[in-house]
Amino acid sequence: MSIAKERNSSIESPVCLFCGSGKVRHAESLSVPTVVERWRETYDLDVTCRFEGLSTLNLWTCASCALQFFAPAPLLAPDDYAALEGRPGFYAETKWDFDVAIPFLPERAHVLEVGCGPGHFLANVTATKSLQAEGLETNPNAAADARNKGLRVESVPLETWAADKALHSSYDAICAFQVLEHLPNPHDFFASALALLDTGGRLLITVPNGAGFIRYSRYNLLNMPPYHCTRWTARVFERVETMFPVQIIAMQHEPLARHHLRWYVNAHLERLPETPFLYAAACVGGRRIVRPLLGCYPWLRRRLTGHSLFVCMEKGN
Ligand SMILES: [Zn+2]
């Protein structure tokens, strides 16, 4: 897969970041100066140096595994995450991802969380379930916070941890919440996770659902480089079963969350043609009628597909 990274330094003939197929089609181009400006306005962070002179970001769709990926895909450095961590919701103490995953963790399991942040999930499961839990976190501030909770956390990527596997025992479960879409080499992530799992062990993953409402947000800063480099859907995970010795035992979509309502309505408004009168009318309807209505009635939101996708896979022989 390092071949994919090397070839993708040019946008002429990218290969899929996941399956390595060269059968890809161009999906969209986005302006780097626009992305840089919006990062400055929204997060007060200058990401100019991350793009190394690029003027356009190109999104590609793999015909083989259906993954969408950016190539080239410049990414934030670990220190940039330290600058973002104070943002509301960046390291949420509770979230749907945790709630949906916990029932799939066996009692007394040895669990590794990849990208554990300040350890909210690990602290939760070690307190409520009899688990032996460890974490990996490359953001130095978040890793320090997790260690202050008494958790065992290493500041290395999963691939490094797997390469040193003689130094530690294998795992019954590996969790990665909202991590996969940040990784430039997702194939190595799966290979490393499976090398660390016992047979019958579980890989629990959440990602932003690339088939959900977020796909309508064109300049969604948190769904493109330098933050994310890939977009995942249920269809891509079904392809994982043909690439690795795993079986999907559960897949769930997050219902629309109240705190995503504004984003949900605005994303759908972006789908509309730019006919001034129609667009203005839809904005009024969406913001003054649909959003308050969905805010008042949780049962309505539960019927709509929200932000994330959860997948639980079991390792076979
Ligand atoms: Zn592919």
Describe this protein's structure:
- With about 325 residues, this protein is of the alpha/beta class.
- Helix content is about 35%, strand content about 25%.
- It has helices at about 1-5, 30-45, 80-85, 95-100, 120-130, 140-150, 160-165, 185-195, 235-245, 260-270, 275-295, 300; strands at about 25-30, 55-60, 70, 110-115, 130-135, 150-155, 170-175, 195-210, 230, 245-255, 305-315.
- The model has no long low-confidence stretch (mean pLDDT about 90).
- The structure holds zinc ion.
Lay out the secondary structure.
Blueprint: H1 2-7, E1 24-31, H2 32-43, E2 56-62, E3 68-70, H3 78-84, H4 96-101, E4 110-114, H5 120-128, E5 132-136, H6 140-148, E6 152-154, H7 158-163, E7 171-177, H8 186-196, E8 197-208, E9 230-231, H9 234-243, E10 246-255, H10 261-269, H11 276-296, H12 298-302, E11 305-315
Parallel strand pairs: 4-5, 4-7, 5-6, 7-8
Antiparallel strand pairs: 1-2, 2-3, 3-9, 8-11, 10-11
Helix pairs in contact: 10-11
